[in-house]
Each structure stands twice: as C-alpha cells, then as structure tokens.
Design a protein that fits this description.
Helix content: over 70%
Order of helices and strands: HHH
Shape: elongated
Structural class: mainly alpha
Number of strands: 0
Largest sheet: none
Number of helices: 3
Radius of gyration: 31 Å
C-alpha cells in the first residue's frame, strides 16, 4: 500500500467518523435553532438588501429627473406672457 492510498483511506475513515459523531448532530441542531431564531427577527438576506438598495437608487434617479422637469416647466409657465 503506497502512502497516498494510506492517507486517502485514513481521511475517508476520519470523515466517516465525523459524519457519524454526535458533534455533527449537535451542529445540525444548533444551525436549525439559529435559523429559527433569525426567522423570528424579521431579518433580510444580503441579496434582498442589495436588490432593494438598487431599486432605491433607481427611484431616486427618476425622482431627481422628474424634479428637474417640473422646475423647467414651472420656469416656462412663469416666463410665459400673460
């Protein structure tokens, strides 16, 4: 048996032991409890936050453009002969 095969076999056995250990179950349970706790906090994901940030930036740009158009129209109305 060569060294690579020995270490591969050893690594496989260690991984199998970790998968079957109580530590893995504890990790799964803690993750589930944390996920449940976070869901009660009404948090958003980073992806959702970034999307809403982009939507807000587009909305601000549109609002600024509309404000400029309105100001230009108001100037034209004010300058028009009466």
């Amino acid at each position: 048996m060569d060294m690579n095969s020995f270490f591969s076999d050893l690594q496989g056995k260690i991984n199998q032991a970790i998968e079957n250990s109580p530590a893995k179950d504890i990790e799964k349970n803690v993750k589930a409890m944390m996920a449940q706790g976070f869901s009660k906090l009404d948090l958003v994901t980073r992806e959702e936050f970034d999307i809403q940030n982009q939507v807000l930036a587009k909305t601000r740009a549109k609002l600024e453009a509309l404000e400029q158009r309105l100001a230009a129209l108001e100037e034209r109305v004010a300058a028009a002969p009466k």
